[in-house]
Amino acid sequence: xxxxxxxxxxxxxxxxxxxxxxxxxxxxxxxxxxxxxxxxxxxxxxxxxxxxxxxxxxxxxxxxxxxxxxxxxxxxxxxxxxxxxxxxxxxxxxxxxxxxxxxxxxxxxxxxxxxxxxxxxxxxxxxxxxxxxxxxxxxxxxxxxxxxxxxxxxxxxxxxxxxxxxxxxxxxxxxxxxxxxxxxxxxxxxxxxxxxxxxxxxxxxxxxxxxxxxxxxxxxxxxxxxxxxxxxxxxxxxxxxxxxxxxxxxxxxxxxxxxxxxxxxxxxxxxxxxxxxxxxxxxxxxxxxxxxxxxxxxxxxxxxxxxxxxxxxxxxxxxxxxxxxxxxxxxxxxxxxxxxxxxxxxxxxxxxxxxxxxxxxxxxxxxxxxxxxxxxxxxxxxxxxxxxxxxxxxxxxxxxxxxxxxxxxxxxxxxxxxxxxxxxxxxxxxxxxxxxxxxxxxxxxxxxxxxxxxxxxxxxxxxxxxxxxxxxxxxxxxxxxxxxxxxxxxxxxxxxxxxxxxxxxxxxxxxxxxxxxxxxxxxxxxxxxxxxxxxxxxxxxxxxxxxxxxxxxxxxxxxxxxxxxxxxxxxxxxxxxxxxxxxxxxxxxxxxxxxxxxxxxxxxxxxxxxxxxxxxxxxxxxxxxxxxxxxxxxxxxxxxxxxxx
Length: 645
Description:
Low-confidence stretches: none
Pfam families: CN_hydrolase (PF00795), NAD_synthase (PF02540)
GO molecular function: NAD+ synthase activity
InterPro entries: C-N_Hydrolase, C-N_Hydrolase_sf, Gln-dep_NAD_synthase, NAD/GMP_synthase, NAD_synthase, Rossmann-like_a/b/a_fold
Keywords: ATP-binding, Ligase, NAD, Nucleotide-binding
Shape: globular
Oligomer: single chain
């Protein structure tokens, strides 16, 4: 029967906090769908106001504003059925039914309407409003805070003493004299494997199919992460296997950028239709872009193989789109001023800015002191020329002397470390932030994930800025992305090759090693390559502890677990147990001691499964060495060398 329905998936750019813009976009898509004789058009989760709105969801007036657009969409539903995500605030005076925080009960809901009225269910329950279905499974991990704001359908069932199946019923979509049952889900309802009741997954899809749904539609606001589409394919296959019988499954996701104040989160779409075997068969061909996918009687439901992803290419696209769509956060026409040190990080950020906004929107500033070499100054100038951006040279040595003089009027000399910080603060606070104000431009934080983890930057200096484009890339990923941009994006050398190491992070004599250039002969203290993989392990979604790393060392499989070669361990002398311990303690202790810096960092564009910002939530705590750590340390101290097994 559902094969007679023409269904459209409105993969749209959802702009958080701009409901008028979003609804106008929806109305345009609805009109296009009507022109193509679509019966049902489906939009993403929370597409009216955005999904990541923070505590705006606690403001009644804000929620009322979002709900006020339902009337416009209801009027637009003449001659078509519409399903979309929006907040629903339960203003009922029948009994006391608050949210868990005592405020008005709110739902992350799907609205279903057709021909100017809210859609009927196969079986109405007298509890839920007409045409409105709350989300059942509320994610409460990473940067998701659904449980902070919304009441789940599962909790509604508990409140009213009902079985969940009594509240999950397909909506009836009319076509001619037929009324076709369509099951509606919201995002996490698909990822049900880890939500349990009575020892079984809370499988919303299975309940809806058993209630008569002839197709399922999942409305999502699912952020991009590497290989997310493949992971979703596996979950739909799991639903097929766990449900017994299955039906066509329509998945619609948003594109664009949203944020939670500390992370910039990108959405790549990936809208997909699955057949009765749970195989992907119709894929959106517009990743990161809007797409109106119309599935009619001519559509093929034969399985399709999803293309394999390329990690660096996808992370490049995430940052590129994160920057390009940061207009939502920074205004319609952002310009940038960027400190160009001549190093690899600032070179990559400047290139990304030019790609996202154009060369006329970026000004590079080199701020040399007595410690900056001709090599780095030359590299900064070469990059600016390659990119075609405006380039300023503003020496800071006189300011360093002036600041040093003032800071020593108390008769106490500044240490070498103090003098390093003075230089960094002059560059960040005195020059970049003031140029930013002078030009009405934004300035960027150019730190990578390893530097952010170790606090290898100066508060009120190079820790400042409006956005951190590469803050979720390890140093190895920074180098890989530079190669990708040179080779694949431009097809020529834009980022100077003298900044790029070999696979073991070795540099030739003519090359430039990573350095802050705040004192003579300074090089960064990190063991790049090795520390990059170590950081990936300890910040992964399934985080590894220092005890895990030590256990792997004892077992002789550390290199395999981290995904590095033995040559990388030899390059950094990690095969020596004493050096391994010294370095590991320094690495972990330094990360914990610099939480106070990270909580002050600018927003970071998310590219991994666990980013600093709001994805990793940290308390400022002292370093704790566990009993297991002490026992493992004693064992490693007795080892002569790292022995593979």
